[in-house]
Amino acid sequence: MSGSRPRAIIVGIGTECSSFAPHRTAMADFGVRVGDRVLDRFPAVQAGRFGEVDFVPGPVSRALPGGPVLRAVYDALLHDVLAAVRHGAPWDGVLLDIHGAMLVDGLDDAEADLAEQVRDAAGGADVVLAAAMDLHGQVSRDFAQLVDLPTCYRTAPHVDESDTRDRAAGLLARALTSGVSPARAWCRIPVALPGEKTSTRVEPAASLYRSLANPPDGVWEAALWVGYAWADEPRTSAAVVVVGEDLGAIQRECARLAEEFVAARDAFTFCGPTGSLSWALDEAAAATDGTFFVSDTGDNPTAGGSGDVATTLDTLLADRRVTDGAGDAIWTALVDPDGVRAAQRVGVGGDFDERVGGCFGWPARVGLRGVVRRLVSDGSGDVALIAVGRLQVLLTTRRTPFHTVADYARIGVDVTRTKLVINKIGYLEPELDAVSSGWAMALTEGPVDQRIDHLHFERLQHPLHPFDAIDDSWRAEVEVFGFAQ
């Protein structure tokens, strides 16, 4: 150790990127945290639960999921991370606060590149690296070799983000203060599934993730990554990493998790009622009370959708039950800065007649004729609500998810009094789920099309379910890195 008290720096660059999104993640898409705003993400660290280690906040950058990160943007963010790491080097430990499914133009395996460069800047081979990640991240062999203590969320929808970051901090503190160098067992799982088929609310993911909470003796941590199915990269797949002092125990636990995941591959099904958009609208029309939600899944911006896919709008405008029905309906949200500016020019109550969609290049634009119902401008960007009968179409200047009741309240919409909400989202986030009287997932087109076989992959490592047959006799090939003492 570099002194009587171990020192660890927290840094990271995190986002989730679809290879199929025309959007490119630019510097303006990232928010950079420094100082106490980084420690705010680690409640147990902030509360001094790991007081035997000095955790020092460095820059942590996060962006809303979308298209691949521009290389110049990644290089600039990495420059700032490395500058902060070098300034305090040598470090005893580094905690990477990342997502794990970042794509960077012209660079394979961005997280492995980040880990390698941070390790070198921090002091080299003797530095202990931990990582707190999303369970939809990717864990390649290279990344598993580089990072001593990786872990990830155990819930989807994610309700344990802070717990996971604190768990990663606790693992790092344990390694730095115990004098033990745990080994880690890694296995690539030849399965790629969309998140909406692997929700931990339902089986088989529910049982698999519950089993992580009580590891066998000799195991410090077991982490299971579903992976990110919309990345056209060789590393795309599920993966498992088990960390501990007992080589046999970590290998057995790693193999168990991998083999149970593969054995359950056909049991992973959508976590809610699912079908075509027309079917979902039929389900909504049959509902009598409360608010019915339809997930417009193919262009979910929090999964990497570009937000500019307008094809759903065609179907909504053609359905008289939506435009002329007994209750209000709203579709959220189509990013279209030109459309918002057109609405601002005519003002509230003015006639709107524009073609919308495709602002990033998705090859579809749709004619929208209606009346400007509302204009809102605040720190989250400008928005325009265009009314077509009972349907309100929300246009935004920025890619914007709508995951909470407050998100809708900001634009003057009470979702509890809205009959039909069509939302660019996947599974419903907890707050919307709590106020819904019914829900259907529509399989729509877009950069995160749930029907991944509809997308054109070129670089995947095969065999990979569901693209290839996996023999029922498949057995895990576990690799071990590091040395237990």
TrEMBL record:
Residue intervals of the Microcystin LR degradation protein MlrC C-terminal domain: 294-459
Residues covered by the Microcystin LR degradation protein MlrC N-terminal domain: 7-284
Protein known as: M81 family metallopeptidase
Source species taxonomy: Bacteria, Bacillati, Actinomycetota, Actinomycetes, Micrococcales
